[in-house]
């Protein structure tokens, strides 16, 4: 008998046969309407849920599934999964730290380069029949600030230091002296010493609006912001104002507050590059995250400890 698995994300669609082959019966529900209907119609069957941090899974949904045992977040984030409620109900929660770090770090550098060198705008300019007219700062040798020196932050730092000869500073909840990079004791101090500030910290209440108007002003009119973490980390209204008033030079955003709804004001700005929360969506990254999910789920249903429990959840 296959284990009923509720899947709330569409990025694993190509991997459904492989998931089925590992002993799961997939119930795909990627819209709010499908999600509510699947929970209602399969309430007495579902034993495991596959989601991601931004999509989440809520206390009332857990309460509606009496046979639920395991909630898995495909990526590293878990900010919208009610971990406390899961723990109270005896549910295990896992995530995927490191599985998509390479892809996200690559994308961060692409956004950094694309924003600084105005690549989308230059491409559109040429397609309109024009030539010349675009100039942007070089990246090599500049100061790279990283907000959150976890697995992804370290990958970004390595690319900046080794690939572009950048000097790297960082802000983290705790210093990481073994990294060899310069630690700053606040986002404000880091921004003041950065030409490019990359947000790579987890989302959630603890990091909400960590990048605010003061941090953006410290980054300054020659500085660039890149966010491949969570939209909630950046004060969107403050960012829009800083971009519109040229108090920072530009921004590259893979995430925004309230996504998938994008603030219309961002569309009117010529100094921002937007991508649709796709930093971790390379074939290699999705394959790695699905593989880790299957390892966690197989371990759980085989009576073994899960490999990557979410901090604060049951191990």
How does this model look, in words?
- The chain is an alpha/beta fold and 315 residues long.
- It contains twelve helices and twelve strands.
- It has a seven-stranded parallel beta sheet with strand order 8-7-6-9-10-11-12.
- Helix 3 links the parallel strand 3 and strand 4.
- The protein is globular.
How many strands, what sense, and barrel or not for the largest sheet? 7 strands, parallel
The ordered H/E elements are: EHEHEHEHEHHEHEEHEHEHEHEH
Low-confidence stretches: none
Looking across the biggest beta sheet, what order are the strands in?
8-7-6-9-10-11-12
| Overall number of strands | 12
How many angstroms does the end-to-end distance come to?
A: 26 Å
Morphology: globular
Number of helices: 12
Report the mean per-residue pLDDT as an integer.
96
Q: What value does the Rg take, in angstroms? A: 21 Å
Strand content: 15-25%
Chain-wise SSE layout:
Layout: E1 3-7, H1 16-21, E2 24-28, H2 32-41, E3 48-51, H3 59-63, E4 70-73, H4 83-88, E5 92-94, H5 101-116, H6 119-127, E6 143-147, H7 151-164, E7 167-171, E8 182-183, H8 187-192, E9 196-199, H9 213-219, E10 224-227, H10 236-244, E11 250-253, H11 264-267, E12 272-274, H12 283-301
Parallel strand pairs: 1-2, 1-3, 3-4, 4-5, 6-7, 6-9, 7-8, 9-10, 10-11, 11-12
